Amino acid sequence: MTPEAHADLVRERTIYSCVMGSRAFGLATEGSDTDRRGVFLVPTALYWRLDKPPTHVEGPAQEQFSWELERFLELALRANPSVLECLYSPFVERIDDTGQELLSLRGAFLSRQAHRTFTRYAEGRRRKLEADVRRHGAPRWKHAMHLLRLLGSCRDLLRTGELVIDVGADRERLLEVKRGEVAWPRVESWMTRLAEEADAAAHRSPLPAEPDRARVEDFLVRTRRASARWDGVRPD
Length: 236
Description:
- The structure is a single chain.
- By secondary structure, the protein is of the alpha+beta class.
- It has 2 domains: 3-108 and 212-228, Beta Polymerase, domain 2 (2-Layer Sandwich), CATH 3.30.460; 113-202.
- The protein has helices spanning 3-13, 22-25, 69-77, 81-86, 97-104, 106-109, 113-136, 141-160, 171-178, 184-202, 213-228; strands at 14-20, 35-40, 56-58, 64-68, 92-95.
- It has a 5-stranded mixed beta sheet.
- Helix 8 packs parallel to helix 10 (184-202).
């Protein structure tokens, strides 16, 4: 498939799209970008060809990224933070009946696996921030802010069983970090405390040990079967 055909899949076959990034997290300021994320459904018949359709597409608009439904489900079942958070955006821009069913499955993806995946991602980001401090004397403050946000989200998810992506009352404290107004040792201490609180919450979390894979797979199979009956598949 050509890049234009990939873009057409996003334009014509998106089942769900939303605004993410700082605007969804309650951290937007003047000049913040508008990041868009979405899920598109490839017609089943396109998988019968040797040239397979894409698992994801960047664009066609700026700051836009979309996953094919199956890839999105796979990542969500692994508790990928960026993917799970898309299901909880307060700013939904496009949704159809299949997208509505996807949103109704949000709870099926949540499990204590989130502790491992969120904290593993956070540890990698923290090592990069520490490397910046060693090389340049300061971290990338925007990245530090978003890491604190992620750690807090992980802790609260494990404590409550609910994923909330808006930072709420922590907005001003986090924006101070973004502006470089908080000393790095204090930011490090905050990160450590959040990680420890997430570790403690994981042991008594109300979340199940594993996601509901069977429920998600049933949704995927039914959706693929329905798509196989669609008559509008183009050969190119």
